[in-house]
Amino acid sequence: MLNKTLFLHSFLITTSLFFIINNSYSQISIIPTSYLKNIQAPKNLQPLTTPKKVIIAIVDDGVRVTHEGLRDFIWINPKEVINNIDDDGNGLIDDINGWDMSDNDNDVMPPEFRLKDFKHGTELAGIIVNIVRHIYGKNATDYIQILPVKTLTDNANSNYLDSAFQGIDYAIDAGADIILTAWGVNRIRKVEKDILKKAHKNNILIIASAGNFPEEKIQYPAGHETVLSVAAIDNENKKLSRSNFGNFIDLSAIGSNIPSTSVYTDTAYSNTYGTSSSAAIVATAAAIIKLNHPKYTNSQIKACLISSTDSLSLDELYQGKMGAGKLNIESAIKCEIFSKSHTETIELSKAQGYLYFNSKLGSFKNWLIQPDINFVGLRFIYTPLTGDLGEGQINFFHNNNKNAKLLSKFDRNNVTDKLFITSKSPYVTFNIDDSSEPIEWLIHYKAETTIYRKLYCHSTKRLNKPGIIEDGSAENSYALNSDCKWLITAPKGKKINFIFSEFDTEEKTDLVYFFNGIGTQEKIMAIFSGHNIPPEFTSWSNQVLVWFVSDKNNQGKGWKANYKFID
User: 8 pLDDT exceeds 80?
Assistant: First the structure.
């Protein structure tokens, strides 16, 4: 068992709707359904075969398993009975409906005395159930089960999950097919990475929310390469204001006004907002694909979701940083990437997508990748599905011109799981002679975009000699969302004198702060903004923190100041 660690919980923001509805879920008629059109959720779908139930584990703060809308979907451990004996030999007694990792018992229900602090998991479960009912109707319970894994102790002093990765580990061993992790943390340890790798090795797909801060800042488990990371969009297919963004995002889904179950009573319902809602929707979509394609691996399910997305309406700041596009469940179920022939060059224009080869569909294939966004390079991640490359060779050319430069290649003696190239329109080829051995592989490509807040200046620079500070953009306009600091320390008894030589920023919006001391909690000595050169300025003490911040609009040419130490 792993040691307990605190993990930031990405909360859904909810507006609760309280109803008593004749104890019959099917009679609920007030639940909004517009979001179902946004995600292209089919209605009354039936799997082509009779699959086993897909288990979606919700690793969170518990689930109200007695809720009228959820109780028929709750997982029942087939190897356990309630008899105070560990029937399945997993070291846990009577984990009939899941397990409370934090309190080490089989009660996955939110504590009745703290419902407002333990509502998140129940809402995630409700989102899943609503979509499944829409798609499968009265047969929904034949196809999906929800495995609750509680990872927040009843007496917790905060809303930080204290057993989150242990909960993932339990879900893996319990037989989950999909694991929903609607929470995040800035960094993870090796032992936690190993748990994520264990899930991947066991053919389990983890779906994670990107975070609700909002920042261009990576979160885990969302940022791990084996995990599917989900950002949130609004009804107009634009980034939801509270959603994180960045190169680690895989796709987006609507996260505004999503109906769900409420934790407060067994007949209460709510509307939810945020990346947690979006992740729950995508987790449901992953389960639907699993039902319709039971032999697909977790990598193939991930490819279906990413390769079938629709376009988004994004500002320049977010292009390429909300994943491949928005979720389209109907297209993801069809998953045409695995059925197209190999007789033509495939042109790919999304920020990310997939190259797929199957020797049963042809002996050669070519791809021209031209993402229609600004980006600095493309990262490729190779996943073998069947066999190896044999005598074949995957070639990466600078472009599709006849004499284009060969940038890299994969063959059976030289195939890595990752490759990064800076070409703006790489041309990839693969061909192989007839082979009795089947060959099938996937390559996931991602366009890595500029992190604007780090483009010219970032983090905190520590300076203890006279010199120059500037926004760093030289002749260019400074970056979108700049966030830069300089901590200047003069010898004791000295002060710091500033003389600006250049200054051009968006007035009252993009600002240069001067704090008396080492942090932003200190008193502000001056704030400069606008288009005029600021007056000469002298600090109050021997330490000054200079902080430059800008928004996503109307960048200026920037600024420059000389500073010296004076008595």
Answer: no
Q: Which of 18-27, 355-364, 406-415 has the lowest mean pLDDT?
A: 18-27
* DSSP string of 88-156, one letter each residue: TSSS-TT-SS-EETTTTBS--SPPGGGGGGS-HHHHHHHHHHHHHHHHHGGGGGGTEEEEEEE-S-TT-
**Helices (H) and strands (E) in the chain — how many of each?**
7, 28
3-state secondary structure of 408: strand
Residue ending a domain, choose from 302, 330, 358 = 330
Residue 497 has pLDDT above 60, yes or no: yes
Give the confidence band of 435 by pLDDT, cuts at 50, 70, 90.
low
pLDDT at 217: 85
Structural domain count, the chain = 3
CA angle 287, 291, 292 (to 5 degrees): 120
Cα gap 309→329, rounded to integer Å? 9
Indicate whether 354 and 245 sit together in one domain.
Answer: no
- Residue 286: both structure tokens together: 């992953």
For residues 554 and 234, which has the higher predicted lDDT (pLDDT)?
234
- Quick one: three-class SS letters along 314-381? CCHHHCCCCCCCECCHHHHHHCHHHCCCCCCEEEECCCEEEEEEEHHHCCEEEEEECCCCCCCEEEEE
Tell me what pLDDT residue 295 has: 93
Residues 502 and 439 in one domain: no
Residues 411, 389: contact at Cβ < 8 Å? yes
CA distances from 124 to 148, 177, 239, 270, 293 (A): 10, 17, 21, 11, 24
From 275, 300, 330, give the residue that closes a domain. 330
CA–CA distance, 233 with 256 (Å, rounded to integer):
7
**pLDDT category, 510, cuts 50, 70, 90?**
very high
Token pair for 494: 């000295």
Note down the domain range covering 356: 340-450
Rounded to whole angstroms, how far apart are CA atoms 378 and 423? 7
Q: Are residues 384 and 499 in the same domain?
A: no
Answer whether residue 306 is part of any domain. no
- 420 lies in the same domain as 458: no
Reported as a pLDDT band with limits 50, 70 and 90, residue 486 is very high
Contact 274, 232 (CB under 8 A): yes
406-411 long-range Cβ contacts below 8 angstroms, 24+ apart: 410/382
Mean pLDDT, the chain, whole residue set: 90
- 70 in the same domain as 30: yes
State percent of the chain over pLDDT 70. 93
The whole-angstrom separation of Cα 309 and Cα 456 is 33
